Amino acid sequence: MLKNAALTGLVMGAVAVVVIFLANPFEGGTPNPTGSFAPVAPLLENPDPAFTVGRGIGAIDAPVVLEVWADFQCPICGQWANNIEPRLYERYVVDGKLRIEHHHYAFLGEESFTSAIGAVCAEKQDKYWAFSSWVYANQHGENEGGFSDERLRIIAAAAGLDLAAYDACITDPANRAEVEADAAAAATLGVNSTPTLKIGDWMEPGLPTVDAISAKIDAALGKK
């Protein structure tokens, strides 16, 4: 299933690159031969820390939970994280109506795993949302060095992580095993492309408009 997911993701990525080139203002800095670059700040650079718990953003007891399965290299996931989630944050999260929870589904290549492992380590420092936001804001191709170890370390610093703890964490094989386990768990749920979104019994892949996903959230709120 992961092989099928990879093929699906590559096709989706090829189509989405054109859209993102035209519409996405979040084009991360180009790595130079030394791997140094100036990362682009995300829209949600400083969300209320009271809402950023674990891999999610929003009150733990929010009446509606939106689950998102994503790959950090997936360009459509970048569109979701950079353009849709900030609007949902303003529209629902700050009012305590919605919690957005991320799940790793790394399948586009090794840099999908290295970035997801970095996110696991960020979560251990209660910095998951900051790190993931900075990563999505600095996508740069797939498996082309955009999420090299050096580049991710610079992103980790920008997101406010303790780099000594981060350096020690990313070498722990248990963290890669966690990312692999997340992918396996996603496959059992029927996830085979990214992003895949779920609210209650509803689950679909793809990139909805703000209005379309808002309609799903409003319907779920109406049932509470």
- What is the oligomeric state here? single chain
Average pLDDT value? 86
- Biggest beta sheet summary: 6 strands, mixed
* Number of structurally distinct domains: 1
How many extended strands? 6
Bulk shape:
globular
Using the CA coordinates, give the radius of gyration: 16 Å
SSE series:
HEEEHEHHHHHEEH
Q: Which percent band covers the strand fraction?
A: 5-15%
Q: Which structural class matches the secondary elements?
A: alpha+beta
Helix % is: 40-55%
Distance separating the two termini: 35 Å
Low-confidence stretches: 1-34
Question: Judging by the overall fold, what is the CATH architecture?
Answer: 3-Layer(aba) Sandwich
Question: Descriptors for this entry?
Answer:
224 residues; alpha+beta; Glutaredoxin; 6-stranded mixed β-sheet; 8 helices; disordered N terminus
Characterization of this structure:
The chain has 224 residues and is of the alpha+beta class. The chain has one domain: Glutaredoxin (3-Layer(aba) Sandwich). Helices cover 50% and strands 12% of the residues. It contains 8 helices and 6 strands; from the N terminus they run H-E-E-E-H-E-H-H-H-H-H-E-E-H. It has helices at 2-23, 75-93, 110-124, 128-137, 149-158, 163-170, 173-188, 210-222; strands at residues 52-53, 56-57, 64-70, 98-104, 196-199, 202-205. The longest helix has 22 residues, at 2-23. The protein is globular and about 45 Å long.
